[in-house]
Amino acid sequence: MSAINIDIPASQYQALVGVGGIGSGVFFSLDGDHTLGREESRSGRFLDRRDYCKLHIISHYVQTLLGEDFCTIPIGKLGSDPAGLQLTKEMKAAHLDMRHIQVCHGDQTLYSLCLIYPDGSGGNLTVDNSACNKVDADFVHSAETDFARFSGRGIALAAPEAPLAARERLLQLATQYNFYRVASFVSAEMRPAIEMGLLSMVDLLTINLDEAAAAAGIKAESGAPLSVMVGAVHKLHRINPEMVVSITAGRNGSWTWDGKTLHHLAAFPAQIVSTAGAGDAFTAGMIIARVAGLCLSEAQEFAGLVATFSITSPHTIHPQLERGSLLAFAEANQISLSPPVQRLLLEP
After folding, report:
1. Cβ within 8 Å of residue 224, ≥6 positions away
2. What DSSP assignment string belongs to 80-134?
3. Cα(288)–Cα(322) distance, rounded to whole angstroms?
């Protein structure tokens, strides 16, 4: 690819303030494809994969790809256990602003056991009494000075794995201080989030196919992905006509909805190692594109590239993901990038 000289306007956004899960986990590969029984003993093996939680993944990619001139401020709690101490070290190394990360002595860090079947499917067992569960509205409110400091110049992120009440307070502060508001909810949270009115405080909702089906009140397996997308965006548009929606669907690519048009982007080619964390990488890409001033279709393209590169690593944070490696990956896989996306990757 040859360099194309195209100007991207200077961003109004200077900071990301987010709340969500910060933790780690392990991957366990099960022998046998049948679903694990209630009283069954099953053999398997631990995999050499590092697992991270949603706020950490998104914050890491945002800070890494935007650089030290951008301020990324996660809000969360960690235990004083070895996992918490290691995560603190890694987050500091990534230049995240750690002023609102609290280490809770005597508590355990959020932790998951990810079970994987031979066909690649699986699920998580996640502790529900971690330090992360103690992130409440008052703790989030303690970051109000940063919302005031970046008033009109910040992006707020309400990510899963933190209590809904904490995310509600973050969105309220973001609304008060004129932040661009990004949120995501897992399938089980979609109905409570709608009932609490949280979607009325969201500018960009990033979800996957199953979460879109939950929002629409339909089963993801009951129809083709497109029918799920249409049902979801119609329902979400009625709730908040101004909200932009992005929906990822794995090998089926992604869709974005701007209130008028549903745009599909096919999945980019890649050698898949692990899809864990791809949705969070996509969310990070959408945030970075917003900061860079890309239009929605360009943002979807950039987010798709970030997510695709992320699945070439066994870890949920790809340790080599940065602008140069993204550009090299696109070139190696003959992915044609739009001029603004190429320009973003070529910027120092």
Report:
1. none
2. SSHHHHHHHHHHHHTT---TTEEEETTPPPEEEEEEE-TTS-EEEEE-SSSGGGG
3. 12
CA distance 110 to 189: 18
Residue in this structure with the two tokens 């110049």, named with its chain if needed? 153
Are residues 203 and 176 in contact, defined by beta-carbon separation less than 8 angstroms?
no
Domains of the chain and any CATH numbers: 15-23+53-77+133-346 (3.40.1190.20)
Query: What is d(CA 168, CA 174) in angstroms, rounded to the nearest whole number?
Result: 10
Q: Which two tokens stand for residue 92?
A: 């500091």
Q: Which amino acid is at 81?
A: D
Which single residue is written with the structure tokens 């692990």?
Answer: 274
Token duo for residue 167: 């995310």
* pLDDT tens, per residue, the chain with 348 residues: 333 333 444 568 999 999 999 999 999 999 998 988 989 999 999 999 999 999 999 999 999 999 989 999 999 999 999 999 999 999 999 999 999 999 999 899 999 888 888 877 777 788 888 999 999 999 999 999 999 999 999 999 999 999 999 999 999 999 999 999 999 999 999 999 999 999 999 999 999 998 999 988 887 665 567 788 888 899 999 999 999 999 998 888 999 999 999 999 999 999 988 888 999 999 999 999 999 999 999 999 999 999 999 999 999 999 999 999 999 999 999 999 999 999 999 976
Residue 115 burial (10 A CB sphere; 0-12, 13-18, 19+): middle
Cα–Cα distance between 70 and 64 in angstroms, integer?
Answer: 10
DSSP line for 181-250: EEE---HHHHHHHHHTTGGGG-SEEEEEHHHHHHHHTS-GGGS-HHHHHHHHHHHHHHH-TT-EEEEE-G
